[in-house]
Amino acid sequence: MCGIAGILAPGPDGALAVRRAMTAMAHRGPDGSGLHDAGPCVLGHVRLAILDLSDRAAQPMPGPGARHWIAFNGEIYNYIELRRELEAAGERFRSSSDTEVLLAAYVRWGRGCLPRLRGMFAFAVWDSRDRTLFLARDRTGEKPLCYASSGGSFLFASELKGLLAMLPGAPDLDPAAVDAYLHYQYVPEPATPLRGVLKLPAGHCMTLAPGRPPEPEPYWRPEDEPPVHGDPAALVRAELEHAVELTLRSDVPVGLALSGGVDSGSLAALAAARAPGTLHAFSVGYPGRPHHDERDRARALAARLGLKYHSAELDTRDMRAFFPRLVRIMDDPIADIAAFGHYSVMRLAADHGVKVLFTGLGGDELFWGYPWVGRAARLTRRKGRWLRGPAWLRGLWPALRAATGGTLLLRAGRSARVPALPRALAGWLRDVSLLTLDRPGHAVFYDLAPDFIAARAALPGLYSPDFARAVPPANAFEPFRMAGDDWDNPARAVFSALLHTWLTSNCLALGDRVSMACSVEARTPLLDHGLLRLALGLLQARPAAPPEGKPWLKAAMRGLLPDEVARQPKLGFQPPPQAWIQAVLDDRLDRLRAGQLVERGVLAPAGLEALAARWRASGRDGFLLFKLVLLETWLDTVARVGQGAAE
User: Which residues are the active-site residues?
Assistant: First the structure.
């Protein structure tokens, strides 16, 4: 786990620019750094040593004959198996690192090495003979890689802070990306908030040469996974066992972020059985121990599994004071109110000497833990039937949608006091109104989320006229555009949209940055490629019935995970959101009035004042204001790096 940066076709100060990027990302690699200046290509690397702690594993690393050089961020969990295969084919190794195995795999198989990799990775390989640079990123985007072109040079880095340190000036804001952020709380990849700065999409690679424009190509797509038949519980249990066995490989101490829920609890139970008495567990809580405080159940599970348990209590005042630094740490503007909690777990692990931390990220996505996602899949299936149905039926939809405009009908669909038949009819009308037949090319997806709905209503009155004209029509709906064959399996399409938006751009981006800020490697066994392929394959074989509520995972863990853990309601990793939002707005809202978002013409001053007044009077739109404050803080603490300073 490290940080990488580089320039293809650099100017005369190329090596200096890469060193600036390495300085900006020093937190990602406190154990060493290296630079390879090959003329047409400069590679830089900062190292967090996890496997083979010796200098033999230092990077950038050359292959035999020094034709190929690699800069690698991540872990290849099946490196031992790949090494055996390569040794049988005649390869010889001088280190025990996964980096050397990855480079040998690329030299032997080229792009064909990617389907063989189980792990999280973003890497660059320079071929000095062919004068090509190859870049690749793992299937779900656990490890970051952003890039830009400037003055005939191609630049890349693990973080925006590193990339901006190499650019001569800060790029302009991208209106479409800013609009997407204000709808979603993050910028869906491959965009960033900055014009001309992109991310290599998850599951993609590209080959560059001096003067050749970047053209990412997919090497893996969720829709290409074949159906899998059989007992889901048995299949999931076998893959879980193997994933945990692989991800426990480390030459430094390993711990777990433990909530006491199904996802982290499953990992804890499986890991404790393989490394009894050696693992540490970490969690956080809040003053007064509100209902979402996870410490009691986490401590109880840790005691049952024989884990050494540690916790910390997070105070609102601490979060408020830390907020500007937290925004800088996150690198991307991500308005996840739980970010301080995620950071604090990583900080707690680092303070106890733990360098690798398991997290339960991915469990809700792979095993349908979010109720709204299952509902989105059902409504998208119904939408497909309406779109393929007779024209007269589609013609009824506007009238049916209009019939649900009042709150009385919506209440009737939810009230137990209304007789069953009228309640069912009201519920049916409510669902029909959500089919969005006026956007026939899109799934029903984020438009079920209250924050997305609130942003859609408020933003037209908030943008300046010029900025509003620069935002493409239906911009916020682009991340859930459907391909033609997606309508044959809408559950898979919604699953894929969730992976490519929320999981990659919010959860994994946030998890990578806060862990790396503490020089801790976050591992996500539930996103192991074997499990991911299995979840997709099981869904392919059962397209009509998404398994809501994680039945496959719970059944797989029966007998190993305590029944009370599997039965308890989902809480999620939630701080006291209103108190934290209130604290940040009290401290920083006034800065918006004369801030960069107004100065750059994103916000209309009158619209901003109206939004703030509405919040003060009624508490409405507080989260939208929080997103704006965070974006303003991001412009001050991250985007300014492009103006010539590494820090």
Answer: 2
Spatial distance between the Cα atoms of 523 and 257, rounded to a whole number of angstroms:
10
573 pLDDT band, cuts 50/70/90, is low
80: closest CA among 64, 92, 97?
A: 97
What's the DSSP call for residue 626? H
Describe the strand order of the beta sheet including 68-76 as a list of residue ranges: 61-62, 68-76, 119-127, 132-137, 204-208, 217-218
Question: 71: phi > 0 → left, psi -120 to 50 → alpha, else beta; which?
Answer: beta
243: tokens are 């994933």
| Number of residues written out for the chain | 647
With left for phi above 0 and alpha for psi between -120 and 50, is residue 354 left, alpha or beta?
beta
CA distances 321 to 331, 349, 587, Å, are 18, 21, 9
Name the one residue in this structure whose structure tokens are 């937290």: 326
Give, in words, the CATH class of 2-172+193-220: alpha beta
Reported as type and span, the H/E element at residue 35 is strand 33-37
497-501 LR contacts (CB < 8 Å, sep 24+): 497/443, 497/445, 498/365, 498/370, 498/373, 499/140, 499/202, 499/222, 499/365, 500/188, 500/189, 500/201, 500/202, 501/184, 501/188, 501/446
Distances (CA, A) of 518 to 321, 351, 353, 357, 582: 18, 9, 11, 11, 27
Closest Cα partner for 220 from 529, 508, 492? 529
CB 621 within 8 A of CB 611: yes
* CA atoms of 284 and 315, how far apart (whole Å): 11
Euclidean distance between the first and the last CA atom of the chain, given in angstroms as a whole number: 21
Contact indicator for 598, 605 with CB cutoff of 8 Å: yes
Angstrom distance (rounded) from CA 280 to CA 252: 13
Which 8-state DSSP code applies to residue 171? Answer: P
SS3 521: strand
**What's 221-443+481-572's CATH class?**
alpha beta
Q: What are phi and psi of 139, to 5 degrees?
A: -65, -35
In this model, does residue 406 exceed pLDDT 70? no
pLDDT digits (tens, 9 = 90+) for 15-58: 999 999 999 999 999 999 999 998 899 999 999 999 999 999 99
The span from the CA of 124 to the CA of 119, in Å, is 16
CATH 3.60.20.10 range(s) for the chain read: 2-172+193-220
| pLDDT score of 367 more than 60 | yes
Residues of the chain with CATH 3.40.50.620: 221-443+481-572
DSSP string, 172-241: PB-HHHHHHHHHHSS--TTB-SBTT-EEPPTTEEEEE-TTPPP--EES--GGGSPP--S-HHHHHHHHHH
Closest listed residue to residue 580, CA positions, set 634, 632, 623, 618: 623
DSSP letters for 387-441: HHS-HHHHHHHHHHHHHT-SHHHHHHTT-TTS-HHHHHHHHHHHHHHTS-TTSTT
Q: Could you give the residue ranges of the DSSP H alpha helices within 4-78?
A: 14-24
Beta-bridge partner residues of 124: 71, 135
